[in-house]
Design a protein that fits this description.
The chain is an alpha+beta fold. 40% of the residues lie in helices and 14% in strands. Helix 5 crosses helix 6.
Length: 625
């Protein structure tokens, strides 16, 4: 995404009509790639059984052809994409576990140029905190206006224009708990003029835009935040509202029922509508998590017992009272990479000094209004239960950072090594060293070259990565041969990311890698076309290999370069790792998460192993260059 201050060229959505629809691969293409992805994970006997099921599925006149026809019929029916609604429902809205950690992503900002407040204390705000939060509000209102007026230049890659639709889902977006699946509320243009501000668990509707769309000065916005703080701090403890936001961390079925019960009260229903419509949430924490990044990033990940948060907002910005800040994002409306450039633009502007852009003339803003709730003993008990459940989930999480400063993309490019390929091979070798076997691995690749495109899965574990990992620590294998296997494995990984030779399937990730050759979205689409009776004899999906190949013990995502912010997410299986990485010119920043209930997958140990792998691979490829 272009800079927030970039000169306007084309309107933001001017290229949408030029962007092709997401194609549906042929059955044979998906079958061939799928079978290839099974090879490193299965025994010979298991592979032969799985391959037979695949071939039976795609045979002429078989079930696969029927499902493929239905998928093409769906494609003709859907106005822009056969996958969009399917993916939103299956990947996100039908998920019933808490979105806390399991769905939401986090992003930590670089510290302010002035540094952090050394000893901010507890139970109060700081001047730096209010200054920084007000600057964020100012910049965010500008960016929202640019999206509304289509002044954000559209993204274009070497392969062509990229879909900008997800920008419409950033501001004024909320996930609504419901049954049997959740709902997403988005509005474009996002014309709300308020943000949800949370301080000491008290929720406020805070006007941040004038009635006629005027953008206030940073100082005016600071005054709005100061008014919130003063109002809350003046209240006796007995008059504080309960921490309603904790309910957003609950199991989705539980939260859906509770919200419906609460919404029977007119005041509560109005509060929910106000929060859902707000441009975003801003959480002012009356504490600091400390200078240790391993600890402070967790405050962005989940907060303290999920307090002072609203996990259903697409974006909630968090500012601690020492000035450290970041974002917690709900994943359903848009992928984390979409607002990344916006965060970078805001932080660059902060680095360059706050030069006022918004109106220097006073803008008429209503006083911030506290949202008052009417709850009974049932909801009161539910709040206690929700906080206990959130605490158990948070306590079960291990999450650490690795900021590796020995080299970055400049070095990797100098030795003719793909930066993304290097990271993926490092994950493979680290996992093999720690666990003695390969595992199914997920790498996200963007499909924004297509209408409403989001992501496709790159199955990074291959026959060639297994050969590379087995040979690397073998003393009997020459270094030149090891490096050769390493390079071959990267080539295979990159090939999976590239378009078919006829150019029919091509897409581009945010970091410049061609993608859209994965099998997972096509297989999902075919599964969703089945009747219940057909599913009972679809061996391709009932065979254990199908679940095994999607049981991603390594789930990874690239949000390079990470110069101004870095982030992460939770593991997707009980004994797995979740790892986001960002490759800068001179450093690599990444996060690793795991669950403590699976001691065989321990994030801190994996970080140590991965750092050693970086050292070993870097030294070897430099010697071989």
């Amino acid at each position: 995404m272009a800079s927030i201050n970039a000169r306007r060229t084309l309107a933001t959505f001017a290229n949408q009509a030029k962007i092709p629809r997401l194609p549906i691969p042929t059955l044979q293409e998906t079958a061939d790639r799928y079978k290839r992805s099974l090879l490193p994970l299965l025994t010979r006997a298991d592979y032969d059984r799985a391959a037979t099921a695949v071939e039976d599925f795609i045979r002429p006149g078989g079930l696969g052809e029927k499902l493929q026809e239905r998928l093409h019929a769906l494609d003709k029916k859907e106005p822009e994409s056969w996958l969009d609604t399917l993916w939103l429902n299956k990947a996100y809205l039908e998920y019933r576990e808490p979105t806390l950690i399991n769905v939401n992503w986090w992003n930590q900002f670089v510290d302010p140029p002035s540094g952090l407040v050394a000893s901010p204390g507890q139970g109060r705000v700081s001047d730096l905190q209010l200054d920084r939060a007000a600057l964020f509000l100012s910049q965010l209102t500008q960016f929202n206006e640019m999206i509304n007026k289509e002044q954000v230049p559209p993204d274009v890659s070497r392969a062509g224009p990229m879909c900008m639709h997800q920008l419409k889902n950033q501001f004024g977006a909320s996930r609504i708990p419901d049954e049997p699946r959740d709902r997403i509320v988005t509005t474009w243009p996002a014309n709300a003029k308020h943000a949800t501000v949370i301080y000491k668990d008290q929720l406020f509707s805070v006007p941040i835009i004038g009635e006629n769309g005027e953008l206030p000065s940073v100082q005016q916005l600071r005054s709005q935040l100061k008014a919130v703080v003063e109002q809350v701090d003046s209240l006796p403890q007995t008059e504080l509202q309960p921490p309603i936001g904790v309910l957003t961390s609950e199991h989705r079925e539980t939260w859906a029922k509770l919200r419906k019960t609460m919404a029977k009260d007119a005041a509560n229903a109005s509060n929910f509508d106000n929060i859902d419509a707000s441009l975003f949430a801003l959480c002012l924490d009356d504490y600091a998590s400390g200078p240790d990044l391993d600890k402070s990033h967790r405050n962005l990940f989940h907060g303290q017992k999920a307090r002072n948060r609203w996990f259903d907002k697409a974006m909630q910005f968090i500012v601690e009272n020492n000035g450290r800040a970041g974002v917690n994002g709900e994943h359903s409306p848009a992928d984390a990479v979409i607002p990344g450039s916006m965060f970078t633009a805001i932080l660059k502007r902060e680095e360059q000094g706050n030069k006022e852009i918004n109106s220097s003339n006073p803008v008429s803003l209503a006083t911030p209004r506290q949202l008052l709730w009417n709850i009974d003993s049932t909801i009161g008990k539910a709040l206690v239960t929700a906080e206990n459940n959130a605490s158990k989930t948070i306590d079960n999480l291990s999450s650490v950072l690795l900021h590796y400063n020995d080299f970055g993309s400049d070095f990797l490019k100098r030795v003719k090594c793909s930066p993304d390929g290097f990271l993926q091979m490092a994950y493979q070798l680290a996992y093999y060293r720690q666990h003695g076997q390969p595992c199914a691995t997920y790498e996200s690749a963007s499909t924004r070259m297509f209408k409403l495109g989001r992501t496709e899965t790159v199955r990074s574990c291959s026959v060639d990565t297994v050969a590379f990992t087995k040979a690397w620590d073998d003393k009997d294998v020459k270094l030149s041969d090891k490096v050769g296997l390493f390079q071959k494995a990267i080539g295979t990984q990159m090939e999976y990311m590239k378009a078919a030779s006829n150019g029919k399937y091509h897409g581009c990730s945010n970091w410049g890698i061609i993608a859209c050759r994965g099998v997972d979205r096509h297989l999902l689409g075919l599964r969703c076309m089945m009747t219940q009776e057909e599913a009972s004899h679809a061996a391709i999906f009932s065979d254990p290999s199908y679940i095994q190949s999607m049981y991603f013990k390594l789930s990874t995502s690239n949000t390079s370069p990470g110069d101004y912010s870095w982030g992460g997410f939770g593991p997707v299986v009980p004994e797995g790792y979740g790892s986001n990485y960002a490759i800068g010119k001179e450093r690599i920043r990444l996060s690793i998460s795991s669950w403590k209930t699976a001691p065989e997958a321990e994030a801190t140990t994996f970080r140590t192993t991965l750092k050693k792998v970086f050292d070993d691979l870097g030294e070897a490829i430099e010697r071989a260059d």
